[in-house]
Design a protein that fits this description.
Blueprint: E1 2-7, H1 11-23, E2 29-35, E3 39-41, E4 60-62, E5 72-75, E6 78-82, E7 87-90, E8 95-97, E9 100-103, E10 107-109, E11 126-127, H2 132-144, E12 148-154, H3 164-178, E13 185-190, H4 200-212, E14 216-218, E15 223-227, E16 232-235, E17 240-242, E18 245-249, E19 252-254, H5 256-260, E20 287-289, H6 302-320, E21 333-340, E22 343-349, E23 358-362, E24 366-370, H7 375-392
Parallel strand pairs: 1-2, 1-9, 2-5, 9-20, 11-18, 12-13, 12-18, 13-14
Antiparallel strand pairs: 3-4, 6-7, 7-8, 10-19, 15-16, 16-17, 21-22, 23-24
Length: 412
């Protein structure tokens, strides 16, 4: 019997375990998935916890609930991928051989990369919201915070869910408005980007929203350190931004086991060199990568993992059959953007096409509006939680194309 080994039981790994389990002959292939944690977190929900929209229990379920019977789920810490031996070593000394390896180890915030960020103010006046611990601690802080300078800062540009910091700014504006204390809170959005986002049309729309909501944008700010004593962000060119409450999006890096396994890219962020179309490793013939663990030039977002999964299952089956890998990932990504007060926007784009106005997912009828702020988009974002738990994780086919479609988009 041959072995497919999946590293990581987050969104991408769980989805692939389900897809492979449905597609493979169980007499010929054994599927094993390894992860250090028992609990699965609905990470898009982390955004809502500080504002009381979701409660912590809304975003946590056991990982085993979403893996099919017949898949061997091992809860263990991975020490190293021994690619020359086609095996993975666990920290307990056991090894797991593989014929095909799927790496879905994701990315994590690493606040330790920035001097002063994770120090004496951590979870007192400095918080992240990309972790369960951070978002729940921030919820407690906001409940009794009396106001002041709220700074939302991106330490780097390569981050999980690139629109989430903007969503946090918009929801903060609504939250403090509804509490009757918006005039006591000065919100600043501090980013290394030259504007609100990376794509021109989306940047124009989002910049206008930020301006309307009185959120100050400080662009081209490359964070060097946090001066904890003075409560000031300091950039590499010695610009300073003071804060009373800092909501940080720290440097994001791939799993440390990628570095230990000498499989990471040259910039030291531990993302794996991956063919951006086939999702196969550029270095190892029997290794495939999906989700945030890749270094492909697409957003590190759950929708990307979903669209990649549609391609990856085809290519793994082609690889097993000894056929060319003909399925191609086009960089498709779409993201709801919460804008506060029960409304949201939506962007849909890929490697070559920026977000455009129009409707999604169906021409004429939509019902979602692209680059528009609507209640339908907000309801779509909230409904996605059910879709995530019941369809996306379990590998079911969603009623949207894996490849980006121009149908419903306005190019003029």
């Amino acid at each position: 019997m041959k072995n497919i080994l999946i590293l990581g039981a987050g969104t991408a790994g769980t989805m692939m375990a389900n897809k492979l389990h449905k597609a493979l002959n169980h007499k010929e292939w054994r599927i094993t998935i390894v992860d250090r944690d028992e609990q699965h977190y609905y990470q898009p929900g982390f955004l809502f916890i500080p504002f009381g929209i979701y409660q912590p229990e809304d975003v946590v379920k056991p990982k085993a609930n979403f893996l099919p019977k017949g898949v061997d789920f091992k809860i263990a810490e991975i020490d190293k991928i021994n690619s020359s031996e086609n095996e993975v070593t666990l920290t307990n000394g056991l090894t797991i051989p593989y014929d095909i390896l799927v790496i879905a180890t994701g990315t994590v915030p690493v606040p330790e990369e920035t001097p002063g960020l994770k120090g004496k103010l951590w979870y007192k006046d400095i918080f992240d919201f990309y972790t369960y611990e951070g978002t729940t601690a921030l919820a407690k802080k906001l409940k009794d915070w009396k106001g002041g300078k709220l700074v939302i800062n991106l330490a780097e540009t390569i981050i999980k869910c690139p629109v989430a910091p903007l969503e946090f700014a918009f929801l903060a504006d609504a939250y403090f408005t509804e509490k009757g204390m918006r005039d006591k809170v000065e919100i600043s959005y501090v980013t290394p980007l030259s504007g609100a986002f990376t794509k021109p049309k989306a940047t124009a729309m989002l910049s206008k929203l930020l301006d309307e909501k009185g959120i100050k944008v400080i662009p081209d700010f490359y964070l060097e350190k946090v001066d904890e004593d003075r409560k000031v962000l300091v950039s590499y060119d010695e610009l300073e931004v003071p804060f009373d409450l800092l909501v940080s999006v720290p440097v994001n890096k791939g799993d440390e086991l990628i570095e230990r396994s000498d499989m990471g890219d040259e910039d030291g962020l531990n993302f794996i060199p991956t063919d951006k179309e086939t999702l196969k490793s550029k270095k190892f013939d029997n290794v495939f990568i999906i989700g945030d663990a890749t270094n492909v030039p697409a957003s590190k977002a759950g929708s990307v993992a979903h669209f990649e999964g549609e391609v990856l299952i085809e290519n793994i089956l082609s690889y097993i059959a000894g056929q060319p890998l003909e399925a191609k990932f086009d960089g498709h990504s779409n993201c709801f953007i919460e804008t506060g007060f029960g409304k949201a926007s939506l962007i849909d784009f890929n490697y070559t096409t920026e977000p455009l106005p129009g409707v999604y997912p169906w021409p004429v009828v939509g019902p979602m509006g692209l680059l528009k702020v609507t209640r339908a988009n907000h309801y779509g974002k909230l409904m996605f939680k059910w879709v995530y738990w019941h369809m996306l994780l379990t590998g079911k086919k969603l009623p949207v194309s894996g490849h980006m479609s121009m149908a419903g988009k306005v190019t003029a």
